[in-house]
Amino acid sequence: ETGVTQSPTHLIKTRGQQVTLRCSSQSGHNTVSWYQQALGQGPQFIFQYYREEENGRGNFPPRFSGLQFPNYSSELNVNALELDDSALYLCASSLIMWGGTNEQFFGPGTRLTVL
Amino acid sequence: DAKTTQPPSMDCAEGRAANLPCNHSTISGNEYVYWYRQIHSQGPQYIIHGLKNNETNEMASLIITEDRKSSTLILPHATLRDTAVYYCIVCGSGNTGKLIFGQGTTLQVKP
Questions:
Q1: Could you read off the pLDDT of A48-84 as tens digits, one per residue?
Q2: What span, in angstroms and rounded, lies between the C-alpha atoms of B10 and B12?
Q3: Residues of chain A found within 8 Å of residue B93, distances taken between Cβ atoms
């Protein structure tokens, strides 16, 4: 069973640029969630994708957008990067079954630095 | 905001049991208690979850009080590799994928 993978592991961008982060879900999972973790803080929920549709969003502006593909892999896109976007971006996959619990399995994260 | 309260830090001697408390006094009837941990520079790792009964797996035990307003995660024989930030999270069942992380408890296991 393959776990959740993310790419790249590290990335440096400048303010105003755009970035795309990628995530491959754990085999058999149908849902991907993205989190932002600033230094010294707990992860903050950005959004979740279920069957290629956005299924919940946290308090993040529209310049944070995402995609989920038929193979359940996912992308997180951030436009017009700001210095405060510097953080660890975590992807988590899960198998959502209505009325059931959904343990989320996290990837190692992508460390984004905005200069 | 997180619906849980945890102590910011705890120490534990290697080989002893680590008992990590969590208060969740506003938990709803259909909400589960989840525990995750995050070892430095890694993604969070799922540990265990429960609704109202005590639960045990290969990693830990979860004790939930009868009124469900608090719980304790027990690592029966802590090792140095258990040093991490431990997060207690309350989350509804089904399609709610939004895990709300608080500050967690930093557990330091000492030799």
A1: 998 889 988 999 999 999 999 988 899 999 999 999 9
A2: 7
A3: 99-101
